[in-house]
Every structure is written in structure tokens, then in C-alpha cells.
Design brief:
With 420 residues, the chain is of the alpha+beta class. It folds into 3 domains: 160 residues, no CATH class; 73 residues; 150 residues, Heat Shock Protein 90 (2-Layer Sandwich). The chain is built from 9 helices and 12 strands. α4 runs antiparallel to α6.
């Protein structure tokens, strides 16, 4: 993933998170405000009914139009204009609050004109485990003479409890946001580590180029020396040095080519190429190595119109990679069959072998960079897991379709579909 893509994802994700949190806070606030408004309306209605019932009990007219006055968010004053019986007040309060579904703790007190204090109060709790609570000092109200005050000390918690669902959803949202932030942090950290790894590999492979070239020149000089030619052991050792140096150079070139592909610097030098001729050229190069292992390669090149537009170098490398894998992953007497054919507008290339095969669960993964089929702690075949990744990238650049079919212990077949 490119740095620009990650940055855009981070920015868009942050905007989305901020938007979702803002909307959630807005709706929670709206829900609480609506709940509080409904609660206050219920309290007003209930207290007005209490005042009316007290007037009826005292057999007096009820001349006050709006007897209830809200002093604060949780404290109300009710104007009665006549003496109040504390027991009757408690009875009517309980009945009206129950009627209006108000089930939160409250405390009330009656104003005594003679002492000019709030007296005869009580704390009413809906919690069965609630211990006895001493009545607080409820404030007086100078504009009325006969009145009582009522306070709801747990109004806030009561309203919040009525919005439990919103709170649960908000909690789940915060967990989701936390996971997103954590995942984004992991992605950014992995990206930094990946870039460090790429820089290290690129620097190391470039540093290898000079000693590899020097060893190659030195081995060529040694092979031309008469003293080396006349000594069988020295000649064999020199051949081994040259062969292993070429193998190391091929691995370095493969890493550099993959780096170019990943950085978008893969410039395809497309040209008209005969697929059958390219196959024959590669087969002639690997035939000697194959025969030393008691193996054989068979070709069945039936495609007549085998002319394709591609980068010849990369095509050759793809063929070498697949055939090299077929040789390396065959236990004995490797047999490789290479076929070309034409089918529904496609030029098909199939390379099959009788090797050890790939387990079904690993077939998709072998195209990934640095992936090697697990064989425990021992890898009898040396490599970096870059070959099929390189093949995959070349096919992607050329817009070729390719697939791997394999069965453990029976062999592998690789099919390429190339558009004419």
C-alpha cells in the first residue's frame, strides 16, 4: 500500500470518526433534553393535580392558574394559598407520581408561616435497599405564603437510566473507534517496518553486485588458466565457484527486478516474440542440468499462431522460474512437460511436472512475496520465496491470466492464458 493511500485512509478515517462521534453526542444530548423535558412536564402536571386535590380536600376553590413554579432543574415550589396537612400531601404526592410513572427519589417540605421555615418534610426512596436519608435544607420562596417545596436529588441519574440503550450503543461505538485507531496504528507501524526492510534489501543487493562481478571475472580468468585446466580438482572447484556465483547473481537480479516492479519502475520493452522459440531456447539451457538429475523435458508445442507482444527478457525469466521450480521440487527423475495451444482467443502455455506438489491450502499463498511452503525447520531446497511472486507481478504487468493446480505427492501444473 502506497504512503499516499495510507495517508488518505487515515485522514478519511479520522473525519469519519469525528463525524460519527459528533452525531452520537448530538443525539445523546437531544435524547437527554427530550427526556428531561418530558420529566418536567410530568412533574408539573402531577404537582398541579396535587394542588387541586388538596383544595378539593379542604373544600375550597382553586383560584391559582399556575400553582407550580420551577426554581431550579430539580426543585419545584407549589402554591396552595391555604394550610397544608402533611399526611394528605404525602398521600397525594405518592398517588400522582405513580399515576405519571415518576419513579425516582424525592424529598419535600412544607413552609411554616409561624417559624418561617420549611418543616414536616420526608425523603421518599424507590430503592428498597436505600438507607434512611436525612432531609436536606430546602430553600424558601418569599413570594408565596402557603406552599410546599419538592426536590428530586437523583433526577440526573434517573434520566440517564432512561437512556441506557443510547449509552450502550455509544460504548460499543467507542470500542469500535478504539479498534480502528489501534488497527491504523499497526498498519502505519508495519508500513514503516516494511519500508525499512525494503531499503535494507535494496542496499544490500546493490552492494552485492560489485563483489559478484569481481568473483565472476576472477573465476573466468581461473578457468582459462592452463594450470587450472590440467588439475581436475581445481577445475571442478572453479566451476563450482562460477556456478554458485551465477546463482547468487540471479537471486540478486530477481530482488532488484521485484523492487522495480513494486516501485512502479518496471518498464516493459514490448516486442513481437515467438513463444515456441522462447520455450525451445530455455529448454536447451536447462536440459543439461535436468539430465544430470536423471530427468527429462518434453515439449508439445501445438500453437501455430504463437506470436505475442511482450517483454522477451521477462518472458524468459518467467519460463526459467517455473522450470527451475519443477526441477528443484522433484525428488527423483523429474519429468517436465511443456505444451502450447490455442483456445477461444487465448494462447495457452502449460508447464507440468511430477514433483512433490503443493498442499491445497498453500496454493494461493505461493504467489505471495517471501512465502515458502512450510516444511518444518528444514528446507532441503534453498530459496527466498521470490520466484512465483516475480512471475505473478510479470503476469500482472502483461495482463496475463495464470493459475496453479497441484496435488500433494503427484505434481504441479501451471497454466498461462495470453491474449493474442
Amino acid at each position: 500500500m502506497k504512503n499516499r493511500t495510507i495517508r488518505n485512509v487515515a485522514i478519511l478515517g479520522s473525519i469519519a470518526i469525528a463525524g460519527v462521534i459528533s452525531v452520537q453526542i448530538y443525539w445523546i444530548n437531544q435524547a437527554l433534553n427530550l427526556q428531561q423535558k418530558q420529566f418536567q412536564e410530568s412533574v408539573f402536571i402531577s404537582l398541579k393535580r396535587v394542588a387541586e386535590r388538596i383544595s378539593d380536600y379542604n373544600k375550597m376553590d382553586f383560584p391559582v392558574k399556575n400553582p407550580v413554579k420551577q426554581i431550579s432543574s430539580d426543585y419545584y415550589i407549589v402554591n396552595i394559598r391555604e394550610a397544608i396537612d402533611a399526611n394528605i400531601l404525602k398521600l397525594y404526592l405518592n398517588k400522582e407520581f405513580h399515576r405519571s410513572n415518576i419513579h425516582t427519589d424525592y424529598e419535600y417540605a412544607i413552609y411554616d408561616c409561624s417559624s418561617e421555615k420549611m418543616v414536616y418534610g420526608e425523603y421518599v426512596s424507590f430503592d428498597k435497599k436505600q438507607r434512611i436519608v436525612k432531609l436536606g435544607e430546602l430553600p424558601k420562596y418569599d413570594e408565596f405564603i402557603y406552599y410546599f417545596g419538592i426536590n428530586f436529588p437523583k433526577q440526573t441519574s434517573y434520566l440517564i437510566a432512561g437512556n441506557t440503550l443510547w449509552i450502550v450503543f455509544s460504548f460499543l461505538l467507542m470500542i469500535t473507534v478504539s479498534f480502528f485507531v489501534y488497527a491504523l496504528n499497526i498498519i502505519l507501524r508495519q508500513k514503516r517496518l516494511s519500508e525499512l526492510q525494503k531499503d535494507f534489501i535494496n542496499n544490500m543487493t546493490h552492494e552485492f553486485k560489485t563483489p559478484i562481478s569481481t568473483i565472476n571475472i576472477a573465476s573466468d580468468v581461473l578457468l582459462r588458466d592452463d594450470l587450472i585446466k590440467n588439475n581436475v580438482d581445481l577445475s571442478n572447484y572453479t566451476e563450482i565457484i562460477k556456478e554458485q556465483n551465477e546463482r547468487l547473481n540471479w537471486q540478486v537480479e530477481k530482488v532488484l527486478q521485484i523492487t522495480e516492479i513494486e516501485q512502479g519502475r518496471m518498464n516493459l520493452k514490448s516486442e513481437k516474440t515467438c513463444l515456441n522459440e522462447s520455450i525451445k531456447s530455455v529448454v536447451s539451457s536447462v536440459k543439461l542440468n535436468l539430465e544430470t538429475k536423471g530427468g527429462d523435458v518434453r515439449t508439445n508445442l501445438l500453437a501455430k499462431n504463437d506470436l505475442i507482444n511482450c517483454d522477451k527478457l521477462h518472458l524468459t525469466n518467467v519460463l526459467y522460474n517455473i522450470i527451475d521450480n519443477a526441477i528443484k521440487y522433484s525428488e527423483e527423475n523429474p519429468l517436465i512437460i511443456i505444451e502450447t495451444s490455442e483456445m477461444a482467443g487465448f494462447l495457452c502455455l502449460r508447464i507440468s511436472d511430477n514433483g512433490i506438489g503443493i498442499a491445497e491450502e498453500h496454493i494461493d499463498n505461493v504467489k505471495n512475496k517471501f512465502f515458502r511452503v512450510p516444511t518444518g525447520r528444514v528446507h532441503n531446497v534453498k530459496g527466498f520465496g521470490l520466484g512465483l511472486y516475480y512471475v505473478s507481478q510479470v503476469c500482472k504487468a502483461h495482463h496475463w491470466d495464470w493459475e496453479i493446480k497441484s496435488e500433494k505427492g503427484k505434481g504441479t501444473s501451471v497454466l498461462f492464458k495470453i491474449k493474442h
